[in-house]
Amino acid sequence: MASFAIMDGKARVPYTFFMHAVLQVLIATWQVLVFLAPYLLIGFLVAGAVSVLLSADWVRRHMGGRGGWQVVKAALVGIPLPLCSCGVLPLALSLRRQGAGRGAVVSFLASTPQTGVDSIIATWAVLGPAVSLFRVAAALVSGVLAGGLVMLAYPHETEAPMDEGAACACGHAHLPVWRHALRHGLVTLPRDMARPLLAGMLISGVLTALLPPNILQGEAASGWRGYGLALLAGIPLYVCSTASIPLAASFIHMGMSPGAAMTFLIAGPATNPAMLTAIWSQIGKAGTGLYLLAIALTAVGMGWLLDRFFPAALAAVPVLQERCAACASEWWGIVAAIILVILLAPGLWKKTEDDESEE
Q1: Which of 56, 130, 206, 306 has the highest count of CB atoms within 10 angstroms of its CB?
Q2: Domain coverage including residue 339
Q3: What pLDDT, in 10s, does the model give residues 310-328?
Q4: Residue 179 parent element (H or E)
Q5: Is 6 inside a domain boundary?
Q6: What is the CA 351 to chain-centroid distance, rounded?
Q7: Count of CB atoms within 10 A of residue 334's CB?
Q8: Total structural domains in the chain?
Q9: Is residue 18 included in any domain, yes or no?
């Protein structure tokens, strides 16, 4: 009986407020999930096809060696690959150990996590065509800039030694092409991004449900201050390219400009402590500093360009709450959301040895 005493009198008001807030967050998160699910499923399927066309072996064959063209090619190859900032590390470091120059490796590390066919499709749907195209351009610019700076900083580099197991073994050679594509698109990719993607949707639900629109509007988050805040939020945060989309939409909902959201879309996926530690150990202190400099300059510069020359980009970004609420009642969105949850669920737990051996 004592446990129900807190529900009496004045204590009922904060409890009711808390439960109402939790319910609103859950509803908002579900609406974001329903809104994104169809585009993510399409993106996963396309990403599976890309994984067959641009396999790890193909990437290694075409990106080995040094030179300016290798830096550009590494950035171009990285743009469509659906790899997060941690998933790209083994492949990039394998390239380094097989003779690829520091510049090409850094270019690949910069461009790949920012985009992927799945995130490009979702960005177009949620944030509009201008932001989506700018995001692709930013991945290319940041990759070439980071790789070029590192290449200039190490003009007489020596080859990195080959480590045991450096080559990324392809365990799918025995699978038919279509099965490999489906497995990568509907099993491996959802599992790898499950935690950050669901976390991004939950945070987006919290921000849109509990914070009033345009709360950040004004001098505190406008102009260069907005770009700086987005940069400071993005650099230490681990968020994959797809999970950053609902967060960027929430920032716009809170009053940030599309340019500031663009800054976050670049800095968030391209940096995290684990990735920077790996770059430090394999590329060097100077290379890590130049990598961060290139990401920061590109993030702020592309954000400014978007706001300065494409003011209509804001009108193309749908109001997240209204758009998500409208989609929440559509049956195909609900079905897609249920399928997406089923695909993401295994990724909430650690991989088992059986799973790893099957891959």
Answers
A1: 306
A2: 27-158+166-358
A3: 887 777 676 555 555 556 5
A4: helix 177-183
A5: no
A6: 21
A7: 16
A8: 1
A9: no
